[in-house]
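User: I'll paste a sequence; please echo it back and then give the predicted structure.

Assistant: Echoing your sequence first, then the prediction.
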Amino acid sequence: MAQETVIHRVDAELAAGAEVAGIPGDLAADGIDELLVTFVQYGTTGWPEEFAEMLKPAGDRLVSVVTPERSWLLRLTSRDVRVDESATGSPAAAVEGPAAQVLLWLWNRGGEETAATGDEETIALLRKVLVASTQ
């Protein structure tokens, strides 16, 4: 409930043209984990048919998501997206920054202090998966 409240609060602030209030790093890191595991991983593995066309070109790519509080390694495949901390290899892309900014970037609510680097196609695919997972 706390994570839903944070994102709804941010939406209200953005709609009102107000400055987005700070999000504590530990709360933001928890929100990132919830988004990646509960929305993305669960959604793509639970309803693979909903993501099949979108993930078809994924092949097998890694994306690192890094904040000062925690890091995640996502494996994007043509079947699903999983948080895979034991994955080996170099990430095709990385999303890094303060946890609050990364959370906002992942939810497409700003996150200007977030650096999304690496393969642009992989970053674009991650964005598509995030949008589809949170509908």
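The radius of gyration is 14 Å. The longest strand covers residues 60-66.
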